[in-house]
Structures are given as structure tokens and as C-alpha cells.
Amino acid sequence: MAKVLIVDDSAIMRRNLAAIMGRGGHEVIGEALNGMQALAEYGNLHPDIVTMDITMPLSDGIEALGKLLGRYPDARVVMISAINQKDRVFEAIKLGAKNYIIKPFEEDKVINIINQVLGLK
């Protein structure tokens, strides 16, 4: 079981991802509403993996990813993206994101990507 930090400004998305993680055998140990909170929560919680929405207020997912990996180079981050954000996804992968998930979620795909990034497959 992996410890997961979910970063998304949408309560519905956080709830949906948390439910999927739970059914996939992982534990959500924290949530953040934006990139600034994500940095603080990561430092406090030290999760095994982070799901990070690309579009958020204050500090978006790309900016937060860069700062997070600057402080914690071994962090495993999976980006969450809307289907029309392909360029931003590629930017995140270049910065060091381990993979990405496109909304709307397909539960099996989410769990497979998380497990693959964690080395469980």
C-alpha cells in the first residue's frame, strides 16, 4: 500500500481520486488545493506518490512540480490533465513528472498508472 498525496483544487476530483486510490489498495494521507499547499504537505507527509492537477489557482501544477522536484528530486508525481492540455503534459514530463492521467478518469487506467510509477507492476 502506497501513501498518496492528492493535489487538486476541485473537491469532487479529490474525492473521486481518493475513492479510486482506496479501491486500488492505496492510502490517501493528505490533500492540497494548490501547488503551494502541495509543497508544504509533501514536506510534512513524505508520500510515496503525488497526483497533481495541472490547472490550479495560486501555483499551478507545472510550477509546483518544478519546485517540488527542486526540493525533493526523488518525488514521484503523476500529473492530472484535461484532454486539451497535451502541451502542458509534455512540459510536465520534461520537468520530471513520472506519468499523467487524463480526465475523465478510467479507474483501471488510474490504478495501473499509479502502480506502474510505484514499481508494483
TrEMBL record:
It comes from the Bacteria. Keywords: Phosphoprotein. The keyword Phosphoprotein applies. The modification 4-aspartylphosphate is found at D53. InterPro entries: CheY-like_superfamily, Sig_transdc_resp-reg_receiver, ST_Response_Regulator. PROSITE patterns: RESPONSE_REGULATORY (PS50110). Gene3D superfamilies: 3.40.50.2300. PANTHER family: TWO-COMPONENT RESPONSE REGULATOR, TWO-COMPONENT RESPONSE REGULATOR ARR22. May play the central regulatory role in sporulation. It may be an element of the effector pathway responsible for the activation of sporulation genes in response to nutritional stress. Spo0A may act in concert with spo0H (a sigma factor) to control the expression of some genes that are critical to the sporulation process. This is Stage 0 sporulation protein A homolog. It comes from Dehalobacter restrictus (strain DSM 9455 / PER-K23). The lineage of its organism: Bacteria, Bacillati, Bacillota, Clostridia, Eubacteriales.
